Amino acid sequence: MRPLSETIAAVGKPMFLHSVGEVSSPKAVVARFCHNGGDFDIAASDIVRVTINLQDGVPVRHETGDVPPRSYIAAVGNVSVVPAHQRTQIAVRGKADFLQLFLRESFLDGAVEGQFSCQALFNSHDSELQAAAMQIFVAATRGEPDDSLLFESGIHRIAARLSDRASHELIQPTQGGLAPAALLRVNDMITAALDDTSVASPTLDQLAGAACLSVNHFIRAFHQQTGVTPHRHLVLRRLERGITLLKKPGKSVAEVADGVGFATPAHFVATFRRTMGVTPGAFQAALLS
User: Fold this and answer.
1) What is the three-class DSSP state of 257?
2) Average pLDDT for the chain
């Protein structure tokens, strides 16, 4: 699998690697890489690459196919997708830790029972892709009897979600949303609340005021921009911060729950499992294995 070989040549051996199918020509591979950044040029192939970021605050620049170059600060838990048959140039500045899935296009065709296609995606908060990647990660590292089924189910889940996103974008391109300055003010307000868990989350009135919109207009525009409601977005941001804390050795799930603003550990565990498809304890064990 050429993109995997090129990635290993560029950043070194993965922390772990798990594959599905024949060793000489696997249908899918999941690997976790840690490196200190660099410039990478990945040739076009029949492989779709899905990356979930496990390190917060990493400056990244992507240039893929005919998509305009994108620069962003990668947040922990965010997902990027590079379609098959597209050369990709990536610049990463600083320490990076990421989970990468290499999915053969013919395997994805079978997963969606048709011709698979997807669009490039960068630094996305798509919770369905996050959850599927989490399931694959846990299944690849845990080694329980049913984990092979969980692993392949996660891949099918990713294939279905990417195919659905591509179909929706072709039929109904994204319109509306928040102006960039308004989105920045809203995100700053949310980030401030996440940074200080002793204060209440911002209300809809406060968020709408930051965007200079009525509440109803703000809810519609926010959903057009992010694909989720303001409340759902805030919960996902708390869970993403939880991922960062779960990486720290010695941190209990209860301490993580308190650190990201959940009232009780039970609420955190239930929300994490409902959203990500695995428990925070299982994910933490995979991270530290």
Assistant:
1) helix
2) 87
pLDDT tens figures, 234-271: 998 899 899 889 988 889 999 999 999 999 999 999 99
pLDDT of 206: 95
- In this structure, the answer to whether residues 81 and 156 fall within a common structural domain is yes
Q: Which domain holds residue 183?
A: 175-227
Give the CATH number of the domain where residue 267 resides: 1.10.10.60
**35 has a pLDDT exceeding 80:** yes
Tell me the HSE value of 224 on the side-chain side, using a 13 A CA sphere.
15
Note whether 48 and 83 are within 8 A (CB).
yes
* Segment 68-73 long-range contacts (CB within 8 Å, at least 24 positions apart): 70/122, 70/123, 72/122, 72/123
**What is the C-alpha to C-alpha distance for residues 134 and 208, in angstroms, rounded to an integer?**
32
The H or E element spanning position 97 is strand 88-104
For the chain, what is the largest distance between any 2 Cα atoms, rounded to a whole number of angstroms? 58
Tens digits of residue pLDDT in 132-171? 988 888 998 887 888 888 888 888 889 889 888 887 654 4
Same domain flag for 18 and 89: yes
Q: What predicted TM-score, i.e. pTM, was given to this entire model?
A: 0.81
**Count of the separate structural domains present in the chain:** 3
What's the CATH code of the domain at 185?
Answer: 1.10.10
Residue 164: CB atoms within 10 Å: 13
